[in-house]
Amino acid sequence: MSTHVLDAVHGRPAHGVPVRLEHRGPGGWIALAERVTGADGRIADLSTGLAAGSYRLVFDTESYLGPQAFYPEVVISFRVEGAGQHYHVPLLLSPFAYSTYRGS
User: Whole-model pTM above 0.85?
Assistant: First the structure.
């Protein structure tokens, strides 16, 4: 499991964005890993070998965009169908919009 945060306004990687990977269990969401994007905006090692189930990435965008951020947090939920696949979920970020897709 990996992610990549790109700053769409400045056209560069978003360095220093805290990201949390969570899994939905019977009692709610459980944190599995927490990392911060590097100078290249990437986190390559959030997790390995995700089991089938529902997951989400929680991006603390306020720490990158500042206290006036319109979106202080971005949550991307996704489903893992089976083990053995690599999941890469990028975030394209700007102050008033964001987008994502399943990368490779």
Answer: yes
